[in-house]
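Q: Hi! First time asking for a complex rather than a single chain. Here are the components, and I think there are two in total. Is that enough to go on?
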Amino acid sequence: DIVLTQSPALAVSLGQRATISCKTNQNVDYYGNSYMHWYQQKPGQQPKLLIYLASNLASGIPARFSGRGSGTDFTLTIDPVEADDTATYYCQQSRNLPWTFGGGTKLELK
Amino acid sequence: EIQLQESGPGLVKPSQSLSLTCSVTGYTITSGYDWSWIRKFPGNKMEWMGYISYSGSTNYNPSLKSRISITRDTSKNQFFLQLNSVTTEDTATYYCARSAAAIGWFAYWGQGTLVTVSS
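A: Yes, that's all I need. Here is the structure of the assembled complex.
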């Protein structure tokens, strides 16, 4: 299985930039696409897709969210951070079955 | 707009089977896409359990392969999860979700249902 590693938590100030990282133990690129996706989950809610294929903004997601990376190193950036962004953020790969998730990064405000 | 909704017992005894239903509205499950079950354990770990495709083929996480079955009722536009021989380690919030066929990101999710395994 492909293992995805995220830092457990990140604290940032309102209006600043948050950068959340996800590292994989295998390359998730294939034919020009990086099969890495990002989700936001707030307590009591289902996950919400933010970014697909590493850098594509999902429908209805504000441009404050962006993703980049390739191979085994990926980042999700929120700039500027708003109060409503406090949540847990997960990366997920679909390069190989079984599809796997990172452990999540909890974003908190300083 | 597409909506997914999980339903089923919230409490299951150890060694019994867990059975959940995902009801889909706004899209016909035989028209396309893969239809997955995903669970989130206490402590935030998430696990993709398996999917049934629009054509009816299935793919399961090998960690569950001997215990899991995903089926569907096309007349009701529903798909189902059965997990056999559950233990307390199967306590989790269970989600159904839709993903693009063979591409594997989850654009639509149900609200989730908490299943507790306890005697």
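A: The radius of gyration of chain B is 13 Å. Let me know if you'd like any chain examined more closely.
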